[in-house]
Amino acid sequence: MSMPQFPECPAWGRPGVIDQIISSIAMEELALSHIINAEGEKIQYALGTIPGNPDAPTIEDVLDVNDAVEQTMQTVLNIQMLLNAKFTGAAGAVIERGATGSTGATGATGSDEGATGATGSTGLEGATGPQGFPGVAGATGVTGATGAAGERGVTGPTGATGATGAAGAAGAAGATGALSTPATTVFGFIPTQGDTSFSGVSADLPLYILFNYPDHVAAGLRADYYGFMDVPAGLYRISYRLRYPETPPFYTWVTIDDRGADVPIPESYSYGQANGGGMMLYAKDFLIELQDNTTLRMQIASPQDDYGSYGNYGTISIIRLRDDKTP
After folding, report:
1. Would 35 be classed as within a structural domain?
2. Is residue 281 part of a domain?
3. Looking at the 3D structure of the chain, how many domains does it have?
4. pLDDT tens figures, 193-239
5. Could you tell me the residue range of the domain that residue 47 belongs to?
6. Helix-strand-coil split of the chain, %, nearest 5
7. DSSP H helices in the chain
8. CA–CA separation, 229 and 204 (whole Å)
């Protein structure tokens, strides 16, 4: 197989070769411009802006055309890079100079200024090139300052009350609790009446005892004219009401024994209040825990001595609320 034969090239020399290279680059650029123009017309045809396409393109058709144009433009861009490199090399090539010839004779002096040539006609407007690739998105701007809060709107009317829901099912009955100790009137109702005659700052009031507790003997209760003895342990409610003249000043209390001495219960003090008819009402109602074998007495007292005899009347009630011996 013989090697291919190339035609003989004219003797252009180095400057001539460079001129031919630059001319070939210009021809390739012209060819690329025709290719780009053809791609633009392809897009216009697909979109219907150039007559001749009877069917309206679909979105898929437009996307397919766009992909084909993008591939062609990528190829054109690669060729442009090669042509740029070729032109840079040709333009920068060193041209060898020949020997300097002898200086020729000086020519005749021409006119100062040549005639101005006629203005050429304006060329046709070229076709619009294809749309370039989207640029890189710019950086997000700084967020602006928050605006001032708007005024608060008017409060809306209260909505209608919703319907009452259905009653829930009754819960299971709880376990029966232990039996409590019933409140009992241990010492009953005790009227006090008659005169009080004493000397000194305090005196026991005489009590006419009326028991209202049938088992007071079995409970170990003992009472005399001036009080109750051997009171069983438990929680008690004690109430009394007494009337005495307004003068001289009195105060009343209930005492318990402490190693043989009568000690007033602080909660039982009463300094009285006007009750009409020149009389004062002394009244108190209090709770107290008592121990076994306690003695209780009702007393009247005054900051003065030697009262003589004064009429009085009233009541005292002692109720046991809890028996400390209940298991």
Report:
1. yes
2. yes
3. 2
4. 555 555 556 666 766 555 444 444 434 455 666 677 777 788 889 99
5. 14-90
6. 20, 30, 50
7. 13-47, 59-91
8. 14
Q: What is the pLDDT of residues 17-71, one digit of tens each?
A: 788 888 888 898 898 899 989 888 888 877 777 776 667 778 888 888 889 889 9
Asked if residue 95 is part of any domain, the answer here is no
**pLDDT digit string (tens) for 239-256?**
988 887 777 777 888 888
Q: What residue has token string 């210009």?
A: 26
Long-range CB contact pairs, 202-206, < 8 A, 24+: 202/299, 202/300, 202/301, 203/299, 203/300, 203/301, 204/297, 204/298, 204/299, 205/242, 205/297, 205/298, 205/299, 205/300, 205/312
* Boundary residue ending a domain (90, 122, 152): 90
> Hey, what are 28's tokens?
């390739």
The answer to whether residues 195 and 73 belong to one domain is no
Helices 59-91 & 13-47 angle (0-180, nearest 10) = 170
Whose CA is closest to 40, among 133, 134, 132, 127?
127
Reported as a single tens digit per residue, the pLDDT across 131-184 is 777 777 778 888 888 888 878 878 878 878 878 878 778 778 766 544 444 555
Give pTM, 2 decimals.
Answer: 0.41
Residue 224, domain member (yes or no)? yes
Buried b (16+ CB within 10 A) or exposed e, 10-43: eeeeeeeebeebeeebeeeeeebeeebeebbebb
pLDDT at residue 286, as a whole number: 95
First CA to last CA distance, the chain = 132
CATH number of the domain that residue 191 is part of:
2.60.120.40
Cα–Cα distance for residue pair 188/171, rounded to 1 Å: 43
Count of CB atoms situated within 10 Å of the CB of 299: 19
In DSSP terms, which residues pair with 239 in a beta bridge? 285, 317
The pLDDT confidence band at residue 270, using thresholds 50, 70 and 90, is: very high
Last residue of a domain, one of 90, 108, 133: 90
